[in-house]
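ok trying this again, last paste got cut off
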Amino acid sequence: MKFKSRPLVLLLGVALLFSCVENEKKNKTQKVADEDVLLSKVDTSEIKLSPVIPREITAKPPFTLESLQHDFDVFSWQSFIALNWPANPDGTPNTNLTIGQNQSSPTVWQMWKSSREVFLPNGAKPNAWGEVENIPLVCKNLTEEDLKKGVIKLSQVGKTPNVLDESGEPFQTGPLIDQNGQYTRYEILINESMFNYIVENKLYNQEGQEAFRKDADFPSSSTKTDSIGAIMVKAAWIKMGGKYDESKFHTTWALVYDNPEEQEGVKPACELVKVGLVGFHIGHKTEDEPQWVWSTFEHVDNAPTQGEEENKDFYNYYDPKSTYPVNEPPARPWNPATKFTTPSKIERVIPITEDAKKLNKEFQAALRQAFKGSVWANYELISTQWPTNAKSVTDPTGAPAPPFLANATLETYIQGEVRQTSSSCIACHNNATMTSGRFSDFTYLLQRAQKQKK
C-alpha cells in the first residue's frame, strides 16, 4: 500500500510545485501591473524624452543651491535618456524608435570606443572611429555558433559585443559579488569627441603624452556652437540567469574576459554571456562646468539604504539573511574565474534626496508611458555632482555639490562622507594625471597608455 501511494504523493508534490511557480508568476505580473498603475498617475507634463544629448543645464530662477541641484539632476536624466536611445548603424540615435524599443539593438553609448580599444598593447595607434574592435585572442577561440548568439544582431550595426575585461573597482578596493556568487563586470567607454582629442594629440601612448608637454584639455559641450564635448561612461554588468530575472534589466551579449593583467594569478579566459546593466556613471565636460558634470544611475533593486525601510522582495546585492559583513569586499585572492564567491551584502550609505526620488518617479513614469514595460523605468538617478564655483582661483575642484557621490556598484567600498577617503567624483578626478605627470583633465584613462614597441 505504501509503495502504491508513492506516485500519488509525487504527483501531488509536482502539482504543488507547479502551483507555487504559477502563483509566483502571477505575483510578479501583478506587481508590474500595480507599478504601471501607480506610475500612470504621476504628472509627467514637464518631462520630455529626447534622443538629443543636452549641452548644458537649463537653470530656472530663483537660483539656489537646491534649485540648481534639481536642474543638474534633470540634465542627468536627459543625458541618461539620450545615451540609452536605440542606435542606428552609425551610432547616431534612431529617431524612428523611442527609448525602450528594440531591446536587441545597442544603445548610443554602446557604440562608443571602450578604453581597451584606445590604449593598446605597445602603445599602438587605435583603430579609427567606427572600425570593429580587436577582441582578445582567447575570445577568438569561441565557436562560430557561440559568436552568432551575440554578434548576429550586433553585426547589423558594425560592432562586436563589448569586451568586459574589468572585475575590480577603483583603487583596488575590491570586486563586487552578485547574488549568484559571480563577479560584477565593468567597462569604460568614451564618445567620438573625446576619442578624437586623444588620437589627434597622440595621447594613446606614453611617448605621445611626453611630447605633448602640457595639460590635457578635452573639448567642452557648448550651447553657443551646439557642439558635443567629451563624455565618458562607466557601466557595471551582472551575468543573467540564476536569481536574476532578465526582463527587469537592460541586457546585451558581451564577451566576458578574465584579464591576467588585472589581478595576479588570473588566467586569460573568455565567455560569451548575456549580461544586465546594474550601474551607469556619466562624466560630461561642459563649457560652464570644466570640472565636468558627474551623473550616476543604478538599477532600482541594487541595495537598500541605511536607515530606510527595506522595501524590496529581492535585492541584486543584498540578502537580509546573509551574515556577511555589510559593505565589505571579499577576501583575497580575487579571481573572477572562481566558480562561486560568497555574495556581497551592500547597503547605500548616503540616501537619495527626496527631490531626486520625486524626479525619478516622474521620469520612470514617462518611460513607462512612452513604451509599456520599458526596462529603463527600472533605473534611478542617485545624484549629480557639479561645481558650484567653477571659476574659483583657489579651489580647482570648483567646490562640488553634493560634496560626496558614490554609486553602490562602482564605488561600493568607498561610500560615505569622510574627506580624502569617501567617493567624490570631482575631488578624486582632480588628482588624475597622464603618464607624464601632467594634469589629465579629470580622467584617469590616460594613465592606461603604454610605451611604444621599439
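PB: full thing came through this time. The chain has a mean pLDDT of 89.
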